[in-house]
Amino acid sequence: MYEKLTELIATGDYKEALYEFQEEFLHIGEKEPKDAAKLCLLEASLWEALADSTSEYDAIARGIAYDGGNYELFYMLGLYYADINVNQAYLAFEAALAYCDNENDTEVIKEAMDKLKEDRSLRVRKLSFMILSYNDLDLLKRCIDSIEQHVPKGAYEIVVVDNASTEEGVRDYLKKKAKSVDYRFKLILNDENSGFPKGCNIGTVCCDRNNDIFYLNNDAILTQNAVFFMRMALYDNRSVGAVSALSNSASLQEVRPEELSEYAGEELEELWHRKLGVDRSVKVLESYAAKHSFPMNKAYIKRFRLTGFAMMLSREAIRCVAKDYKIFDERFSPGYFEDDDLGIRLARAGFEQYVCKNAFIYHNGGTGFAENSEAMTENRNKFIDKWGFDVWSYSLPWFEASNAVMDLYAKRKEWLRILDFTCGFGANASYIKSSCPDTFIAGACANSFEAGIAGLIADDVAFGDLNTMKLPWADRSFDIVIAERKRVSIGQIMRYLKADGLFLSEKINTENDDMMDIIKSNADAGFDSEKLDSLLKE
């Protein structure tokens, strides 16, 4: 069948080829993944010939979901991006070269890469993996092994700072590793445990000054193509300064339990409570990743901070926010809140920060400073002293309101306009747009500091007195308004809400049916403010 389809495409008999594809895809679920990927490759070639770029991209994505190591699909992805984003094209060719086992095709891929190198807009850098080591020998070995297995040779170096490990064998392993590898491996042995921020800063200084840096915990294990998709995100546009991945264990970056149920089965509860064991937990996440690591439209969740267990930073961002290459503020030693602080500094410098929905990294949860039970409280206060606000007040979305928005989006299946008077740093916008990317979210912020950060996440923002300012959007133009009743007047809310719009307040979970609709304004007559106030106070 593959031979017949290849011949039909080669001879330009596209109509017959499309018919044959329709027949074949009826049985694609019965095929082996690699065979299904080959079928998608042929389909992508057909759509390329028909100049249907959307269908071509979709076929490539489905093929990589079937077989994440098919070099021909990555090569076609590179061709797709060649005139769209030269940096992403180069990364796709690099992945194709790493997977290629055909000598003739290897030369073709190299020629494509060499051609891109002539383009002055190419800015792809190599990657420095900066690993802070402290005990956990078995996990450390698996961490480094996963880099060697899943990242193209010649595209990276590894820098390890050992923070005075006390576990037998850790330093001996690292010393032997540094001497035995055929790539650049730098090892720094600290005399004392300097904590996470200072330890990472020591490693940063030792990283190649021309490289991007991937700060990776020693208890983190890469899955196939995780680094590829993170680098694709980092080079999505010049505003991106940092990217991270989804995980089984990472604050605000965890794969939802229900999504892992198919892969964990009856072990889901043990997995979620960190009682399943490393081997089985890694296999569950790898199985999930194999089905979800593929090119995606709108693959990124914008955030104002990323969890430090696996954080990739562009060299441009490092130079901008890290004086003397001190990427993390050492006042937060031994750890906690240093990643929040970095996130604020990156956002203030205008850099976007992405969580990649198609990149997955296992995280065990380390013991680097577990003995210091007061570190979190102390560093939370240090953060407040430095910035003048509590980041925990901004980190979590308003789940009740955001989930109500997503429920309405699912029912209507149409584009929505949302005005969020609780915008803050954009937590609601980030959460909603991660599942409903087509929504338009405008944020009303209390001050310019909030607006400067939220503007990197929400579609549009304004700041000022929430009750009195004239917002730069048309009256009665929003499908949904989110606001805390105690902070924003009904008049201000209703001014911007459509006639059949929905107002979500802090009482949306009430059993009162009137409150579940919350407020629906009349088309022209305005509203009865006393009645609405009475309803909201019930």
Detailed description of the structure:
The chain is an alpha/beta fold. Among the domains are: 127-256 and 305-389, Spore Coat Polysaccharide Biosynthesis Protein SpsA, Chain A (Alpha-Beta Complex); 396-537, Rossmann fold. The protein contains 24 helices and 14 strands. It has helices spanning 2-10, 14-25, 33-49, 53-66, 71-81, 86-99, 103-117, 137-150, 170-180, 195-206, 226-234, 257-264, 268-272, 278-292, 315-321, 338-348, 375-387, 392-395, 399-412, 427-435, 448-454, 490-496, 513-517, 529-537; strands at 127-133, 156-162, 185-189, 212-217, 220-222, 240-247, 300-303, 310-313, 352-363, 417-420, 440-445, 460-463, 478-482, 497-504. Strands 1, 2, 3, 4, 5, 6, 7, 8 and 9 form a 9-stranded mixed sheet that branches. Strands 12-11-10-13-14 form a 5-stranded parallel sheet. α20 links the parallel β10 (417-420) and β11 (440-445). The chain starts with a helix and ends with a helix. Residues 509-529 have low confidence and may be disordered.
